[in-house]
Specification:
Strand content: under 5%
Helix content: over 70%
Protein name: SPW repeat-containing integral membrane domain-containing protein
Number of domains: 1
Keywords: Membrane, Transmembrane, Transmembrane helix
InterPro entries: SPW
Pfam families: SPW
Order of helices and strands: HHHH
Organism: Amycolatopsis bartoniae
Number of helices: 4
Number of strands: 0
Length: 123
C-alpha cells in the first residue's frame, strides 16, 4: 500500500473521496431538499470530489488530505449551519457523507505524510 501511495491515480482513499463527493453532488436527485440543502450538498460535494481528483493526480501533496478533513467536517455541520435539519434525508446525507469524508481523510493523512516525506527532496 505504501508503494502505491506515491503513484498518481492509484490511491484508494482518494478514489473514495471522489466517490463521496460525487454522491453528495447528486444526492439532491433522490432526497427532498430546499435551496440551502441542495446548494450545500452540491458545492461541498464538488469541492470534496475536486480535492480527491487533485490528490489522485498529485499524491505527494500533503495538503489534500488536510483539506479533505476540513471539507468533511464542513459538510457534516452544514445541516445545522444552513438550517435544513428538518429535511431528514438531506441532513442524514450530509452527516453520513461528511463523516465518511472526514474519516477517510484522517485515515489517509499518515499515508500522505509518508509519501510527502519520500518525495520532499525530489524536485
Amino acid at each position: 500500500m505504501t508503494e502505491m501511495s506515491t503513484r498518481a491515480w492509484t490511491r484508494p482513499h482518494d478514489w473514495a473521496e471522489v466517490v463521496l463527493g460525487v454522491v453528495a453532488v447528486l444526492s439532491f436527485l433522490w432526497v427532498n431538499t430546499d435551496n440551502a440543502a441542495m446548494w450545500s450538498l452540491v458545492v461541498m460535494g464538488a469541492l470534496i470530489a475536486l480535492d480527491g481528483l487533485l490528490s489522485l493526480a498529485m499524491p505527494g501533496l500533503i495538503y489534500g488530505e488536510g483539506l479533505q478533513v476540513v471539507l468533511g467536517a464542513l459538510l457534516f455541520i452544514s445541516p445545522w449551519v444552513m438550517g435544513y435539519t428538518d429535511l431528514t434525508a438531506a441532513s442524514w446525507s450530509a452527516w453520513i457523507l461528511g463523516g465518511l469524508t472526514l474519516i477517510v481523510g484522517a485515515a489517509a493523512l499518515p499515508v500522505a505524510n509518508a509519501a510527502h516525506g519520500r518525495t520532499a527532496g525530489q524536485h
